[in-house]
Amino acid sequence: MIYLDHAATTPVPRAVADAMYAVLTEQFANPSAQYPMGLEMKKQVAAWRRTIAGALGCDPKALAFTSCGTEGDNWAVRAALWQNRHLGRHIVTTAVEHSAVLEACRWAQQDGCEVTYLTPDAQGNLSAQAVLDAVRPDTALVSIMMVNNELGNVFPIAEIARGLAAKNPKTLLHTDAVQGFLEVPFAARTLGADFVSVSAHKIGGPKGIGALYVGPRVRNPRPLLPGGGQEDGLRSGTEATAQIAGFAKAVELRLSGLEETLARMASLRDYAVEQLSAIPDVQILGGGAPHILALSLAGWPSQNIVNDLGAQGICISAGSACHQGKPSHVVAALKLAKRVSGGVIRLSFGPETTRDDIDQCAAALRRHHDTRMPML
Ligand code: PLP
Q1: Which residues does 325 contact at the CB level (< 8 Å), separation at least 6?
Q2: What does the alpha-carbon distance between residue 163 and residue 144 come to, in Å, rounded to a whole number?
Q3: What is the mean pLDDT of residues 25-54?
Q4: Probe ligand 1: pick from 66, 182, 202, max atoms within 8 Å of CB?
Q5: Which helix (H) or strand (E) holds 269?
Q6: Catalytic residue at 322?
Q7: Which atom belonging to ligand 1 lies closest to the Cα atom of 210?
Q8: Contacts within 8 Å (CB) and 24+ apart, 227-230
Q9: What is the pLDDT of residues 120-159, one digit of tens each?
């Protein structure tokens, strides 16, 4: 099998599974328990939190565990609207956010908020100025993703943060960094965003665990889950200790040799662009992050390509994994010609991806082009 869908999810390395297994079977105590095994688990959770916070570039106290990236996104939107409820009810976001942010905004709209959805240009880029121009005195929240999950474009979060501080210092800034964490360099402490959401399963960790950075400008945030008081009272529920252990181990593994890994992935992406561009009717779209490559086989429906390559053991996606065959809102936002937008596929790479994987994928795509009729 050739797996080129790391932006959807990633395989869990053996060391991560082992770390989780040990917690599930031996170190299974509740971190709130008062006997030695519980006290030890509390210390362990603190150590794992330090590891993840270190990789995110923030104080461990500023990091709350969540059940996934989606939860972090929803939490950030709600927390910002709550803090700024007297400032206003306007949100600025993009039309190409993950559904986790878009749906949270749509729910906010039903509660009376007004949302401005910014559209990137045809290359998938969005300028900081376009974001700042949309900010009004009553803007409670700006939520802009760090790396687009379907196109790989990197949005200028630090520049947006600086502009926002000058234009409207009370507006809170959230960035969904689920595709940016350990893929593009940043430190939450200096980025200028008030909320940064991340998810473990995109970087070799287990599904079902994420984290939300909550910066110092967020005052008395309303608990997401009131209850037993875990996560500093902000998100109650017994800590998912095995998941957290797996998350920390995955971070540790990714951190070792990270620069070389990212450089290798970037050169692999360049190599893929070279190989795939040589296929007639291929159009490369967007780009920026080292692990995501979007392209269109203009004229050939993307779902047919995914099915054909899938049958040959090559896993790629037609847009985000969350769309399950529905047309992608991200591709639609680019306003491309129908034959181009209908043929968009995404390849995404991980540390273990090889040139041979790319070669085989390119050969299968060429065969698809040469043997199937264009239908768009
Ligand atoms: N945000 C982005 C940009 C994503 O790519 C994803 C997952 O695909 C999510 C949020 C949701 O993360 P999770 O699957 O952990 O809920």
Answers
A1: 303, 318
A2: 14
A3: 98
A4: 202
A5: helix 258-277
A6: yes
A7: 15
A8: 228/32, 230/32
A9: 999 999 999 999 999 999 999 999 999 999 999 999 999 9
- Listed residue (138, 164, 141) closest to 86, CA to CA: 138
Q: What are phi and psi of 50, to 5 degrees?
A: -60, -40
Who contacts 267 (Cβ-Cβ below 8 Å, separation ≥6)? none
Of 273, 356, 368, 370, the closest CA to residue 1 belongs to: 356
Number of Cβ within 10 Å of residue 278's Cβ equals 10
174 lines ligand 1 (CB under 6 A): no
**What mean pLDDT, rounded, does the chain reach?**
96
Per residue in 167-190, pLDDT (tens digit) is 999 999 999 999 999 999 999 999
Separation in Å, CA 120 to CA 123, 333, 334, 373:
8, 7, 7, 32
* Cβ proximity of 283 and 296 under 8 Å: yes
Dihedral sign computed on CA atoms, order 193, 197, 202, 203 = positive
CA atoms within 13 A on the CB side of 294: 28
Q: Specify the pTM.
A: 0.97
Residue 70 Cα to ligand 1 midpoint, Å, equals 6
Ligand 1 proximity of 5 Cβ (cutoff 6 Å)? no
Question: pLDDT per residue over 261-299, tens digit each?
Answer: 999 999 999 999 999 999 999 999 999 999 999 999 999
The C-alpha R_g of the chain, in whole angstroms, comes to 21
Residue 234 CB less than 6 A away from ligand 1? no
What does the DSSP assignment read for 72-98? HHHHHHHHHHHHTTTT--EEEEETTS-
Amino acid at 1: M
Query: φ and ψ at 183, to 5 degrees?
Result: -120, -40
Q: Could you tell me the distance, in angstroms and rounded to a whole number, from the CA of residue 374 to the centre of ligand 1?
A: 32
Q: Is 69 in the pocket of ligand 1 (CB under 6 A)?
A: yes
Residue 212's DSSP bridge partners are 64, 197
Mutate to test the pocket of ligand 1, among 71, 75, 149, 157 (most ligand atoms within 8 A of CB): 149
Distance of CA 83 from the midpoint of ligand 1 (Å): 24
Distance CA 188, CA 212 (A): 10
CA distance 32 to 158: 38
28 φ, ψ (degrees, to nearest 5): -85, 5
